[in-house]
Amino acid sequence: MSNKSMSNKSMSNKSMSNKSMSTIKSCKIIYGYKENCLDDCQDSPVLLIEPRSDYIDKIRKLNLPITLISKVLVKQMANQETLLYYDKENPRYWLKDKKDDLIVNGTNLFNIKRYQVYTTNIESILLQYKIQNVKSFQININIENCNDLLESITPYNHIFSHIIIDECVNYFNKSSKILSNFYSNQEQSKGTQEQSKGQGTQEQTKNNSILCFSHKNLNIELPKIAMYFLNESFNKDTLQELTFLVNQYKMNIIINKDENQKQKVIIPYPESVKLLGENKTSSRVSLSKIYHENIIQNLESIFYKRIEKINDLEKINDLEIVIQFNQKYFDSKKTLQIMYPLKDNTIYVNKIYDIMYATKNCIYMLYQILKSTYFSDYIQSKREEKPIIFKILSKRYFYEYISKIFIITEF
User: Fold this and answer.
1) How many C-alpha atoms does 97 have within 13 Å on its Cβ side?
2) How far, in Å, CA of 149 to CA of 169, rounded?
3) Among residues 129, 138, 315, which one has the least CA distance to residue 213?
4) Cα dist from 323 to 51, 302, 331, whole Å
5) How far is it, in rounded angstroms, from Cα 84 to Cα 96?
6) 195: alpha, beta or left, given left = phi > 0 and alpha = psi -120 to 50?
């Protein structure tokens, strides 16, 4: 591959778009160019990922208003140089790896085309362009790592409306984990298919050989979610991930009204995003070493009936899901998938990072339970049993108690 073909690998093709697109809130992502795949690029922003130099040249000549990423998709490692192989006799693509030995595998070298490429991954693209919704993710390349690519978007499945697999993709495995969150076009009822018109399903399934999967929450309205933090001193290193999450779910943010930490206020979306951008939060919160005391303090400042304005009460009543979040979660993760709709007896928890979320009614019930004499008596008995290590075990005691009342689902 020539040096000229290797240029502008990571950026959108300026010749196809007069306007630089640093942020794309909603778009279609297509992996691999094929005839007619860009016919509706005027209707919705299209992000085309195409690593093959011969196709890249053809795309540029079309001069269409799309964003072109001239890289090959991989599961994890981005911005690495590698080789993409194409078997002309049995049309398929694969990447160079440790097991790659064309002679041992008996492949005829004369039938192999080789592309020198750089790698990227879906996660990097979503964060780079701040994408909040992917109308459809279509794979048009019969590439060996197809199922790894689908697995890599599992944490972000909630922002993918449709997954489309072209008839040429023989490596696709229908048992892929991500598909548990999707209906196939065969599974959807006729009524559901009618509701999906104009969202990428109908036009893509005209050919029955093309597989289309629609997210199970596609026609469920996004719940009104509010997030509060154990510590409101935000980490700037992961502020991008936090802002990305708030944008994805259009979240409200709950922060302390003043330094006394006696009452919290709800900052509605999109003002919540502006708040994060300005990094205007209250001073660092002093956390108790007794686990449940921190939860009680936060919930009391949310639910305690010392509401000064009637609209503050209305904001709380409008909430459907409340999340206790710890930004340290982003030290190892890039996003959080929030399951919904939820039942009022289920709490989702991550015990490592002290994250929990549930319906507002469930969280309010939890607050009432933690304030009850039954819980106080239980905690006192545990304190008397093991006074020296009580603080260390207080988290375990908390979960032991509430697990008898609620369904605790760990993630």
Assistant:
1) 8
2) 13
3) 138
4) 40, 12, 18
5) 6
6) alpha
Q: By the 8 A CB rule, do 113 and 5 touch?
A: no
Is 248:304 a contact under the CB 8 Å cutoff? no
Read off the pTM: 0.79
Domain definitions of the chain by residue range: 3-215, 225-410
Among all chains, which residue has been given the structure tokens 């015990």?
351
Q: Which long-range contacts (CB under 8 A, 24 or more apart) does 256-265 make?
A: 256/232, 256/282, 256/285, 256/301, 258/282, 259/283, 261/285, 261/297, 261/301, 262/301, 262/304, 262/306, 263/301, 263/304, 263/306, 264/228, 264/298, 264/301, 264/302, 265/312
Strands 346-350 and 407-410: parallel
3-class DSSP state for residue 215?
strand
Class of domain 3-215: alpha beta
Q: What is the DSSP letter of 143?
A: B
Q: Which amino acid is at 129?
A: Y
Q: Are 284 and 232 in contact (CB under 8 A)?
A: yes
Encoded tokens for 236? 């700037």
pLDDT, tens digit only, all 411 positions of the chain: 444 444 444 344 443 543 444 789 999 999 999 999 999 888 899 999 999 999 999 999 999 999 999 999 999 888 999 999 999 999 999 998 755 555 434 555 678 999 999 999 999 999 999 999 999 999 999 999 999 999 999 999 999 999 999 999 999 999 999 999 999 976 554 444 444 443 434 334 445 578 999 999 999 999 999 999 977 667 788 888 999 999 999 999 998 876 666 678 899 999 999 988 886 655 556 789 999 999 999 999 888 755 455 556 667 889 999 999 999 999 999 899 999 999 999 999 999 999 999 999 999 999 999 999 999 999 999 999 999 999 999 999 999 999 999 999 999
